[in-house]
């Protein structure tokens, strides 16, 4: 077991690693580049078992969900605040083909605990004007208030370990080579000379934050875009869209207008647009994390690519990674960086 470690990166991946090391009794430093537009500050933290147009069960979801519950419950006990909650989630079924696909999936044994009944839009809250007539109820959906959880984790760890933020990117230093160093910097490509970070794509997303006093605060709805609660009372997250070739992580006027038009056609109740935010997400082509030790320097460890499913992927991925680092357990090929070498 290592006696000291370093974490570079202050987003969700870094926070999950910090908790893991803390529980293992490993002293560490935690360093971060101080910038607002990180994925963890913008993401909604939706834990959704159903993915894609064919409503397939997300990869490894039963295992991911159980580990997420254990992880967040343990962290919340130390933090004294809840950040991870079960949510109602309804997904629009736009036509008869969608309804047939949903019905078929609900009969499959693996999906049955996660795909619920179809409901009429008329039975959903009247604050929305739905274009779809039928919605599918998603079971076992949860939400992590990512930004609040990451900040609370940073504040907690700062009271126990050396934690620092800098304006400039933090390079890996050979002075760290005698102890473990975890690179968990998301969509930045600062260490592309060390790892195959060309496989971590910078996929930009734009989000609106609205204040809407009449929307139920335990409800998530997806009809093209998600509308989900935030950690702030009466405030909701609306998004997100995708921009694969964005030249900047600045909010896009064009994408913001698309989200505004969506709200104008979907909302029956009063709402106020409070903010327009954006960030690059660290995504991979197969939508799975990319983790593992450097092939020549085993003390240097990558933890990246959590993407849009970080709230569910983070706890299991970091547990699996540390079992590999500390106990020499094999990394699953699905998440190992060696699948890209």
Structure description:
- The protein is α/β, with parallel strands linked by helices and 341 residues long.
- It folds into 2 domains: 4-42 and 147-200 and 285-340, FAD/NAD(P)-binding domain, CATH 3.50.50; 88-140 and 202-282, D-Amino Acid Oxidase, Chain A, domain 2.
- Helix content is 27%, strand content 30%.
- The chain contains 7 helices and 17 strands.
- The strands form 3 sheets. Strands 3, 6, 7, 8, 11, 12, 13, 14 and 15 form a 9-stranded mixed sheet that branches. Strands 9-2-1-10-17-16 form a 6-stranded mixed sheet, with helices on one face. Strands 4-5 form a two-stranded antiparallel ribbon.
- Strand 4 and strand 5 (56-57) form a beta hairpin.
- Helix 1 crosses helix 5, helix 1 packs across helix 7 (310-327) and helix 3 crosses helix 7 (310-327).
- The protein is globular and about 60 Å long.
- It starts with a strand and ends in a 14-residue tail after the last helix.
- The mean pLDDT is 91.
